[in-house]
Amino acid sequence: MSEEEMAAHASTLVLAGGETFATFLAATTYYLLKDGADSEAWNRLCAEVRGHYQSYDQTKAASAQKLPYLRAVIQEGLQIYPLGPQGFPRISPGTYIDGH
């Protein structure tokens, strides 16, 4: 496959996934703000992001991975509104009934 063909395929994949990702972002934002702009989750997320970055120019994907609450919000958003048809596996603690 030539470099031009790879670029064409990559742009198709990016365009095809854009609507799904935009919907995921809209749904995650909705759940963050459904209790109002003063919700605990929204305020905590804003405080973490604003405390880590001094300007927009500093925002990079690699440094955003160091923000634990942002990561948690993204992971929870993917649980509620997955990008794919099957979603992502969720690890939850086991349940014990009558000692078993």
General description of the model:
- The protein is mostly helical.
- It has one domain (3-80).
- The protein is 61% helix and 0% strand.
- The chain has helices at 3-33, 40-52, 61-64, 68-80.
- The radius of gyration is 18 Å and the shape is extended.
- The mean pLDDT is 82.
- Keywords: Heme, Iron, Metal-binding, Monooxygenase, Oxidoreductase.
- This is Cytochrome P450.
In short:
61% of the residues lie in helices and 0% in strands. It has 100 residues and is mostly helical.
Please render the helix and strand layout as text.
Elements: H1 3-33, H2 40-52, H3 61-64, H4 68-80
Helix pairs in contact: 1-4
Give structural attributes.
100 residues; mainly alpha; 61% helix
Distance between the termini: 55 Å
Q: Which structural category fits the helices and strands?
A: mainly alpha
Number of helices: 4
What is the C-alpha radius of gyration, as a whole number of Å?
18 Å
Number of strands: 0
Strand content: under 5%
Largest sheet: none
Overall pLDDT metric = 82
- The SSE string, one letter per element, is HHHH
Q: Low-confidence runs (pLDDT<50, min 5 residues)? A: none
Q: How much helicity do the residues have?
A: 55-70%
**What best-fitting shape do the alpha-carbon axes yield?**
extended
Number of domains: 1
